[in-house]
Amino acid sequence: MSFFRSKQMKLYSLVIPRESAWVVMDQLGRLGQLHMIDYDPLLPMMNRPFANYVKRCDESLFKLNGLDALLKQFKKKLIYCEDTQKLLDYFRDIQNSRQKPGHTLFDELEQEIEKKKNNIQEMSNNLQNLLDRVDSITEQKLVLEKAKEILGKSMFSQSTPHNVNDYQQLKFGQLIGVIDKEDETRFKRIMFRITKGNAWVNIVDLLPEKQHLQIKTSIDLNRASQPRCLYVVVYPGMNDQSTLKQKLLKVCDSFSKNRIEYPNSQETMDNKLRELSIQINEAQHLIQMTKKQLEVTLDELVKEKNGCNCSYFEQLRLYVLKEKYLYVNLNYLTMQGSIFTGNFWLPEGLETLVEDKLRNAMQNSIERFPTGQIQEIKPKQGELAPTYFNLNEVTMPFQEIVNTYGVPRYQEVNPGLFTVITFPFLFGVMFADIAHGFLLFLCGLYVIFWKQQLKKQTDSMFNAMIPFRYLLTLMGLFAFYNGLIYNDYLSISLNLFGSCYYPKNDEWEREQNCVYPFGIDPVWLASGSSLNFMNSYKMKLSVILGVTHMLFGILMKGVNTLYFRNYLDFFCEFIPQLLFMACTFGWMDFLIIMKWLTVYPNGKDPSIIETMINQVLKPMDEAVTPIFLNNASLQLSITQLLTIIAVVSIPWMLFPKPLILGSGHKKHKVQINDPQYQKLISEKQGSELEIDPQQFRKELQNAASNRSLESSEQEHDSGEIWVHQMIETIEFVLGGISNTASYLRLWALSLAHGQLAEVFYDMCIAGKLDMGGIVGGLMSGYFYIVFALLTFGVLMMMDVMECFLHALRLHWVEFQSKFYKADGYLFIGFSYNKMLSENNHN
């Protein structure tokens, strides 16, 4: 019954010599069953003994993340580890075969990661520089070609003027370069202001695909390119010292440093273009060589090695994560001299496994240090053990629903066990429809049977449903079942077993002694009073289910109090709460069922609401139309007795517990100081190291004294007790009314679902069935598509989420509040396998 209550836990103290701390923790991490306790949660990690090792691991992970980004950039696909246990076995074999201390393997891998990171980073930087160089040269060549087209050959003929006296007037200077596209308008405006309109400015776009087309076809580095423009400025005069040219140079340089000198002859232009083409070819050749060398190095990282069925990069990353995890848990221990001491929780029955791990920890090591010792200790007064359940793929999503509200207290009844059935059932009551429930059921089955294929489709909508596939299947199954109960198929009633009614004189006549085998007779849903009938039926059914659900929660409170031997809560809370709920709302449920089973003459059915009101306002008057047919006196006697019990239960809940607690201030003090470390002492003395036995014994005694436990004193403040009990009583009494009314959402959501389905059917399908001809067929097909889209979007998506959230609220507030403390904390085992599985990218 490890799912009904959490596993039994025992608290142990752990003492490890410093020399064997890594080996011992490595073995315990492989066992994966210890919940390590931080000796000082407020102490920063940087002030702990192994903070430097954790920092080194973080630095190595940072370098590996950089390499991972490059692998993605070059579209290299990593092979992720599917079997982490196999990888852990490989790590163990490597450590055993090295004939060196196990912790030194990380030192070697750290150096290897640093070397690979520097090598790959250098090649990546060289490749980036080469690409930037090709971009610059290609842009320069394109600028010269564009400028030549714009200026023409006339700019080269200015060296031979027609008249010597007009030499200066016939000369024109030019400036060419590249600016950003967004600066085009501002550049033109400033040029016009400086030259006062005496300069000709032309700007042409340089298309990025023309600049980088040849490069991008060979390599993809996700390099963002800013739109660029070529500018050509022609101004009068060629004197380099002229004021106008100096101003223009300042403006051009302020916009961009990429200003290009225009050749002064055709021959120089041709030579320049030829030289740029040669440089581009040489740079592209170097790019291909560097890229090939870089890809070979990256391929080494993504290849499978050592038979681990995962990339070598993943082996490095997971090993660094494992080392960091080990040192983080080592920091939970406190160091005293040459030993580490700490506490841990262990599930009952696993002591032998831990002792075997400690005994055999140094078996495959070249060193022969003592491995440590564990000793069971008693928890401090009020110290709760962690909560641990054995979960599987079926129970996990239901336990997550419970844990989202709060983790169960150690050893209290786990609501997750009942949630496996009650949650999908209450969802099905609200989402009841044969067709919709069956579609949801098929969706769950699809995810169950095609799980492996869906895992590979990371962008699929069904991929996110994999952890909740069994929850989805049960929700669809119960929605289908309740749809059969309501006889509701897309708002249409199905005549599955034949009706108990037959038409007679335009009315429906019921056959004698005929009972419809299962669900609602289809004639009711086809009659004019179907809405009133179904509303009454669903409302009463919701109240019955709600009160039953809450009564079950109160019973679980009684189970908890008996298990923890809290007899005060059993007699002063559980019994009066159970009596109050049973004598009020439980009695109302009984009246509903009694009325269903009784045939009243002349159609004079009694009112249950009136009966419940008169039970309080007219306790001495017999009912005019009693629920108990022809037996009003018996009904009056029962209602009077139940009313007295319900009224007495309220002060019973309020007064006895505070009075008893207030009169019993007791102090208990327990001290436990009996650790046995003789085995560890003998192992330490028997080792080959030269250590002073007296000094080691003294350190052990100091550690043992610090592990002694002293319970804290508990004192009860009578004022706080009275306030607390008063709040509990008022909350329960008023909550009984509000929580019962809250379960009417089962009726309201079911009604809304049915009415929406009916509206969609009537508007899209029913009115189009009598249309004939080609137009009628086309219209019917069109409206069927509309009907399918509305059903999927509104009912199968929005309404599923709505019913899910309401079922969640009924469990968290109405049900769990009756018994669930939810103040526990989860058992977090020191487990390599679990940690690596959670950090695996598969």
From TrEMBL:
GO cellular component: proton-transporting V-type ATPase, V0 domain; vacuolar proton-transporting V-type ATPase complex
InterPro entries cross-referenced by the UniProt entry: V-ATPase_116kDa_su (IPR002490), V-type_ATPase_116kDa_su_euka (IPR026028)
Biological process according to GO: vacuolar acidification
Family label: Belongs to the V-ATPase 116 kDa subunit family.
Pfam family, one: V_ATPase_I
Protein role: Essential component of the vacuolar proton pump (V-ATPase), a multimeric enzyme that catalyzes the translocation of protons across the membranes. Required for assembly and activity of the V-ATPase.
Membrane protein topology class: Multi-pass membrane protein
Residue ranges the record marks as coiled coil: 106-147, 266-293
Subcellular location field: Membrane
Designated name of the protein: V-type proton ATPase subunit a
Origin species: Paramecium pentaurelia
Assigned keywords, A-Z: Coiled coil, Hydrogen ion transport, Ion transport, Membrane, Transmembrane, Transmembrane helix, Transport
Transmembrane parts of this sequence: 425-449, 470-487, 541-563, 575-597, 634-655, 781-801
Molecular function (Gene Ontology), one example: ATPase binding
Highest rank taxon of the organism: Eukaryota
